[in-house]
Structures are given as structure tokens and as C-alpha cells.
Amino acid sequence: SFLDACCGPISLTSTSGDPFITLGGSPLIASNVLFNLNDDSLTMSLAGSLLAATDSPILVNSRFFELGRNGTSLTTTVDQPLISLDRSPLLVDGQLMDLADATMSLGGPFLTALDSPLIVSGPFFSTTCCSVVSSFSSTSSAPFISLTRSPLLADDVFRLDPTTIVTLSGPLISATDSAGTVDSLIDFSFGGSSSLSSTTTQPLISLTRSALLTNPDVLTLRSAVTLQGSLMAVTDSLVSSTRDYLVYSNSTLTNTGTQPLLSTSGSLLSIDEQFLDLSSTINLADKFLAATGSVLTVNADFLLAIAGGHLNSTGAVPLVTLDETTLVAPTVLGVPT
């Protein structure tokens, strides 16, 4: 391990605005967890980044970062990414981030990658339940994860267990000129106290000139999600789900902003099942979907409403608008009997 802290209580503090660890032209190989902060009452506070790597490939034969146990916390106080990779490929044999009964409060993004391929054999970011609530937040207006010319291969990008609280001031994921092959972008488990909220009017997830292949769902939302912007915006990109849905919603999903929940422009979306499987409540102040110059294909109902599902819209706008767009679907609305 590069940093292994245990047998607390332990407090680690850096008041420098420089990265805690800087790699410049220095490959790094770790045979165990690279950052292991896994002990009761351990706290870490940084005034800068945790890791900044330039021209430095990183190979970790275990998890990249583990933050866990009761009272464990990580805090950054500046709007800088916790992890930044510039021309630094990353290969991790396990989760990139595992947050277990802990709190992570960031003043900046979690990760930015530029020209840095990422291969992760487990979830990219996961939370593990569940004696106490696990939470992560960012007060930055920048995306929590930003990929530019940085392909990603992983299990779920976010695998969030019950009792997980996510609070953001910016988007969750932004990918530009990047390809992704993942199980799901978000797999949010059931949980009475679980929630995800973002106060930005930017899309929670944006893909620009990128390709995304998922199996099964693109977005699985089983806990409350509250947004002031779009859920997902796809521009000049390809999105393909080889099984199931674009959005599976099994809890309350609310968009209070004046943007469509989903938007596509110049893109191809190919979904094996429905665009939306609605078995709970979705509250909208604008459209469900706005598509321009796109091709949308589904092999089942475009929208599937399950018994008990509610789709509420307060906007004086069509629920779906298609502009120079081709929709291929057996039926537009399916209501099982």
C-alpha cells in the first residue's frame, strides 16, 4: 500500500494547496490496496488533491482506495479534483473507490482523467452497507467524474448500497470523446434513507462524442433522486444497452428544472427493452424526452407503465418531442394488464 492507516483514532491533515502525492513520469505498481483508510474514527483533511499523476501509469493489484468503518471521514476544502490523471493509464484489480460506513466531503470533483484509459475489474465507485449511513458530497459545480479522451472499462460506474446519501452541486458524470463499457452507469439499491440530489441545472450525466455500452440497464434507480437539471444528455454519441432498460425507476424521481429529463442530439440510442420502466413515481416540470437529429430503437415498449407507477408533468409542453428523429419501437406505451 502507498498509505495504510489503521489502529486509530488517527487524524491526517495537510494544509498545503499542493497535491498530497504527485507523480510525474513515475510509474507506480502496488500489490495491495493503494490507499487504505479503514479504521474507526480515522479522519483525513486535505487543502489540495490527494493524487495528481502526469505521464505516470498506475497498476494496483487490489482496490485503489478503501475508506471505511464507523466515523471514518475524508474532507477536501478546495475546488480541486481528489484524483487527477493526465496521460496516466490506470489499471485496478478491484474497486477504484469503496466507501463503507464512511463520509467523504469534497470541495472539488472526485476524479478527472485526460488522455488516461481506465480499466477497473470491479465497480468504479461503490458504497458498502450498512451499520451507519455512507455519504459522499461535492460542493463543486464541476462534474464529480470527468473523462476526456479517456476510455473506461468497469463494472458499474456507481454501485450504491442502501443507506447511501449523495449530495452534489454539480453533475455526476461527464464524458467527452471517451468510450465506456460498463454494467450500468448507476445501480442504486433499495434503501429507505438512500437518496441522490444535485442542485446544478446541468445534466447529471452528459455524453459528448462518446460511446457507451451497458449490460443490463444504463440507469437503475431504486432510491429517491432529485434534480434541477436533466438526468442525461447525449450529444453526437452512441448508447447501447444489450439487455433491459435505459432508465429503470423504482423510487421517486423528481426533476424541478425546465430541462427535459432525457435529451439526445445527433445520437443513436439502441435499447434492448424499454426506454423507461416506470413502477414508481416520476415528477417532471418539463419534457420526459427531447430528441433532435437522432435515431432511437427499442425492442419492446418505448414506455412501460407498471401497476402503481405514476408519471406527473406540470409543464405546459409535450411529454416527448422528436425533431428530425427516427423512433423504432413495437409500441410507444405499454400498460400490462
Descriptive key words:
337 residues; 21-stranded parallel beta sheet; 43 strands
Question: How is the topology of this model organized?
Answer:
Layout: E1 3-5, E2 10-14, E3 21-24, E4 28-30, E5 35-38, E6 42-46, E7 51-54, E8 58-60, E9 65-76, E10 83-86, E11 90-92, E12 97-106, E13 111-114, E14 118-120, E15 125-128, E16 134-138, E17 145-148, E18 152-153, E19 158-160, E20 164-168, E21 173-176, E22 179-182, E23 186-188, E24 195-198, E25 205-208, E26 211-214, E27 219-221, E28 224-227, E29 232-235, E30 238-241, E31 247-249, E32 253-255, E33 262-265, E34 268-271, E35 276-278, E36 281-284, E37 289-292, E38 295-298, E39 303-305, E40 310-313, E41 320-323, E42 326-328, E43 333-334
Parallel strand pairs: 1-5, 2-6, 3-7, 4-8, 5-9, 6-9, 7-10, 8-11, 9-12, 10-13, 11-14, 12-15, 12-16, 13-17, 14-18, 15-19, 16-20, 17-21, 18-22, 19-23, 20-24, 21-25, 22-26, 23-27, 24-28, 25-29, 26-30, 27-31, 28-32, 29-33, 30-34, 31-35, 32-36, 33-37, 34-38, 35-39, 36-40, 37-41, 38-42, 39-43
What does this structure look like?
The protein contains no helices and 43 strands. The mean pLDDT is 89. The chain is mainly β and 337 residues long.
Low confidence ranges: none
Shape: globular
**N→C terminal distance:** 56 Å
Strand content: over 45%
Mean pLDDT: 89
Number of discrete helical segments: 0
Question: What's this entry about, in short?
Answer:
This protein has no helices and 43 strands. With 337 residues, it is mainly β. It has a 21-stranded parallel sheet that branches.
